[in-house]
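Backbone-to-sequence.
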């Protein structure tokens, strides 16, 4: 039977996404919204445009604080209507009480009068104020809100408790932690900053950039709302659950700005301003309760989420913003991203150094060129570019030393190929290997990686890939040899250690695998794969080599 839902605030950011998600699951949705003037009606009409075409959707323009609530045939209510925004609530607190408290009281009351018991209410992390210890858990008191908006949301939650005490209702109050994604409200920081950076305009950063927020990507938020809806179908009458929905990570404001700038390929021009009254310094969701009650687990991290948001923004506003920025910054952001993966090679540092020098940032350029040279001391281009930067800075003596070093490298060829040429050739082999793999040529791909390693036995990233392919090809002993070399020569390469364990296991040596993985567990306790591997051992045919021996020993002792 088709489920019928009432989504309030359906023209808003979260409400429009939720309505789409419900219809995509085969439900029918009645959407209510009063096009509150908090932000432009046209934006809300755009949010609704796709929905109005869908057969399962019906829209009613109504103000929940005054008008009748369309509850005919509705199975459950998701109440997302409300006046959002912390700072504006200081200016006009009365309107917040009306939209967030009166409307909520009227809605729950109307629902219980028609015998409708299932309600999900969109509350906010702001209820935790500044006095709650992080991470914020639902059972902390949350009695010190620091803005009228936060107080109005807490009042909504308390109304839920009062009604569930009086009537057999099942209500979930979801505390949203800054939700973002396509169609995000234009007043929210991510949207505002993206817009300003894309247009090359300065942005106001309040505080020193160290304030932190837990950001939730819209699809994770929707997962949480849908799970809450299911909860209302199963819960006992007269129950209220309060659940945090967060992104699972604290993101500093200055990092957020850098991520947006990087995704846009633009420079952020930051104007510093004092902290804003009403703003909390930190939000940080404890998600343990959400996991237990709703099986909630956020899946989209901030880097991926910001990229998706910026993709959407550029789809709507065009990409001209990117071209209007200084081209060099695009390269800088991209290369910084490569380097942030921790797998940077000398080329990335060299190119980043070059980009910085083109952008007129000589100190940063020298730093990156130094890093390139630390990885490959004979990197000709890096030596020459370093000399050029030093020369520009008027450090001629040092520049000349650099150039002399560059000259001596060209004459001194060690072991056939010169270091950076060998690295380039090895990378070509790796690219070829990738192409073979895509065409299904596992053996050929292995041969390419082997060729790459003859050029540079210390290219451990390539050796790691070779090891993995050998495992795939069922050549566990050879893979074992390669992973062992990596682990010996680069002990910090923990992924290689994980694979070494797997190679031992696949080669039939369960005990050695256990030893490797247990050591890895001690060094990387948070890695769930290691637990999975160890669990695999205790279930497998191989692991019992140890286990059976132990059992036999125990039996012997018993006798
Ligand atoms: N987006 C977030 O990061 C976030 C964080 C915490 C809490 N919340 C809460 O989640 C809910 C949805 O947030 P959003 O970001 O989608 O906001 P939104 O402003 O985009 O959507 C809310 C919608 O409610 C409508 N509305 C307001 N008052 C109404 C009334 N009296 N009658 C009918 N409709 C009314 C508005 O016109 C708007 O379209 C809000 O209650 C908000 O307070 C959002």
């Amino acid at each position: 039977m088709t489920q019928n839902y009432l989504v309030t605030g359906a023209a808003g950011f979260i409400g429009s996404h939720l309505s789409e998600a419900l219809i995509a699951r085969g439900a029918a949705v009645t959407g209510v919204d009063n096009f509150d003037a908090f932000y432009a009606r046209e934006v809300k009409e755009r949010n609704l445009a796709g929905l109005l075409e869908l057969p399962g959707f019906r829209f009613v323009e109504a103000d929940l604080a005054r008008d009748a609530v369309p509850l005919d045939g509705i199975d459950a209510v998701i109440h997302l209507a409300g006046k959002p925004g912390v700072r504006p609530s200081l200016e006009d607190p009365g309107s917040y009480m009306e939209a967030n408290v009166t409307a909520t009281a009227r809605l729950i009351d109307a629902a219980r009068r028609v015998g409708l018991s299932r309600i999900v209410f969109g509350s906010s992390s702001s209820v935790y104020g500044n006095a709650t210890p992080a991470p914020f858990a639902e059972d902390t008191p949350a009695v010190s809100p620091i803005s009228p908006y936060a107080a109005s949301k807490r009042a909504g939650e308390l109304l839920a408790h009062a009604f569930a005490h009086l009537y057999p209702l099942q209500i979930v109050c979801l505390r949203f932690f800054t939700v973002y994604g396509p169609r995000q409200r234009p007043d929210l920081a991510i949207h505002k900053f993206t817009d300003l950076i894309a247009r090359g305009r300065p942005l106001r950063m309040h505080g020193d950039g160290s304030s932190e927020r837990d950001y939730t990507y819209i699809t994770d938020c929707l997962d949480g709302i849908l799970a809450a809806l299911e909860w209302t179908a199963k819960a006992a009458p007269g129950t209220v659950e309060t659940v945090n929905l967060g992104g699972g990570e604290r993101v500093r404001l200055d990092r957020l700005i850098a991520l947006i700038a990087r995704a846009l390929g633009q420079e952020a021009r930051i104007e510093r301003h004092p902290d804003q009254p009403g703003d909390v310094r930190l939000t940080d969701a404890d998600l343990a309760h959400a996991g237990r009650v709703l099986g909630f687990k956020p899946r989209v991290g901030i880097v991926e989420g910001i990229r998706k948001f910026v993709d959407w923004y550029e789809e709507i506003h065009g990409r001209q913003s990117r071209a209007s920025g200084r081209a060099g910054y695009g390269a800088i952001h991209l290369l910084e991203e490569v380097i942030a993966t921790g797998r940077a090679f000398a080329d990335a540092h060299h190119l980043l150094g070059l980009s910085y020098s083109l952008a007129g940032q000589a100190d940063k350029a020298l730093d990156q060129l130094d890093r390139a040279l630390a990885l490959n001391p004979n990197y000709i281009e890096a030596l020459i570019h370093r000399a050029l930067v030093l020369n520009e800075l008027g450090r001629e003596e040092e520049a000349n030393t650099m150039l002399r070093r560059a000259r001596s490298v060209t004459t001194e060829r060690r072991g056939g190929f010169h270091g950076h040429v060998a690295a380039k050739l090895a990378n070509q082999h790796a690219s070829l290997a990738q192409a073979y793999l895509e065409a299904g040529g596992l053996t050929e791909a292995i041969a390419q990686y082997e060729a790459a390693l003859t050029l540079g036995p210390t290219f451990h990233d390539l050796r790691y890939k070779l090891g993995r392919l050998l495992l795939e090809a069922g050549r566990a002993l050879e893979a074992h040899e390669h992973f062992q070399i990596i682990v010996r020569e680069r002990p910090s390469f923990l992924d290689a250690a994980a694979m070494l364990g797997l190679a031992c296991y696949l080669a039939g040596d369960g005990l050695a695998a256990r030893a490797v993985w247990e050591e890895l567990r001690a060094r990387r306790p948070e890695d769930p794969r290691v637990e999975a591997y160890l669990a695999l051992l205790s279930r497998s045919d191989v692991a019992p080599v140890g286990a059976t021996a132990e059992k036999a020993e125990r039996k012997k002792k018993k006798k």
